[in-house]
Design brief:
The protein is an all-alpha fold. It is about 75% helix and about 0% strand.
Length: about 280
Amino acid sequence: MAPWTDYQGRIIPLKAATFVALFAPGLWIIWQWVQGDLAPKPVTEALHQTGTWSVHLLLISLAITPLRTIAHWPRLVDVRRMVGVAACLYLVIHFALYIYDQKGDLLRVASEIALRFYLTIGFIALLGIVALGITSTDGWVRRLGAVRWNKLHRMIYGLTVLAFIHAFLQSKIDVSDWVMLSGLFFAMMMWRFAKKRGQAGFVPLAIIALVASLATALVEALWYWGKTGVMASRVLSANFDPDMAMRPAQWVLVFLLLVLPLQAFGRWRDPKRRKAAL
């Protein structure tokens, strides 16, 4: 079965479009490299970009389950595995670039991983995500059984946390993007918890948006306080200053509030859910 077809060999437009789109980040990085836009340290810049894209794709794969439920779009599940495997491949390329950046000296790579905590955390995340990528096939589902396979692949949540820790620790000062992404990840986890409790209507989604936004602001404030000594209250107050640029917490709130129309769209597509409790 090709990545863009179903089990009967029919082409699925959504899968075909997703398959093509997943090459875009890599092609963009290559184009920048060829054009000299990654200078003066192209390997280091490509290393950072592949790592960033791997986490972006990881979050997209985790967002598919909430989105397919909220928007009542079951076919989204067709591309979840593809996106997850792509995240794994970008992560492998990220690690390969790190080895290349270390002149291929595997002993040095091993010692750096052992001695630098953020590299240790990142390597553990790499091993775990690669293991999940390898076992993502239908064959492994049959070998492990659905129950054990699902238990194994729930490790992705913890591995994503490790990936965030690695990203934060290797960052210099500005972690705005990572703070925003961590807020979105937190919202996804809250949604999963609410869904298990049967609370996935408009009101719970709005509450999740507000709580995730506040949590994002708190993470940003605590990070800058611990990293630079800036008072946490100053960072928190910036989130309520209309003269300041949009903060990560505000972007998280905007993105999550945009999900609410999807909830209405999903109820419209699925008449059985129109009577669900808010």
